[in-house]
Amino acid sequence: MPASTSRTPSPAPAPPTADSPGPKATRLISIFTQSVDATLAKCSYKSFAACFPTAAKYVPESLDALWRNFTGQLGSVWKAEFEAILKEREVVKSLNGLDDAVGEARKRMEREGGEGEVPVPPHTLPPSTLHLAHLMPFLEEHTAILDTQLAETQTKNRELADEVIGQRKEIESLLRGLESVIRDLETSAQLMGAEEVQGLGAEVREIEGGMKK
After folding, report:
1. What pLDDT was estimated at residue 199?
2. Predicted model pTM
């Protein structure tokens, strides 16, 4: 009976580094490669030979070699430019970062029991929501401008109200002063009237005294 051998589990694959393509970067490269192959496949020898009928008739072998060389070099140029763009824009690093973020979000949702909010893909949103999302920066900017103008207007209104209140208090003070002057004048008039009456009384008494003599 053969001895049973214990199998150790395979180690988990190491996470992609900044230079090694992760799932999304690998998918992008695969899509580009498939697109290049499909495009070059449309440039068949038959289509190529139709552009050079004389060469296709008399030197088909040379034309076939030229076609293979042309399509091969064209594919190489496209792939080289694509790789240069990936390197210059750090596309692989960015996509790997996106993979990490998605992975962390999934782990967080699993830790929270799946109660986390699942992000909604933009293409599934209704047109009104997408339209509002595009308008939000514009609306927020103009809302801030209107808030500033409103605050300035409110400040000016408060200053104007304080000025009106000050003028009202000044008018009330002047009115109180006028009332005091009027009371003084009335008192003076009353005193002057009493003195005149007393003078007339004295004259009447003198006349009466003269008549009695």
Report:
1. 64
2. 0.43
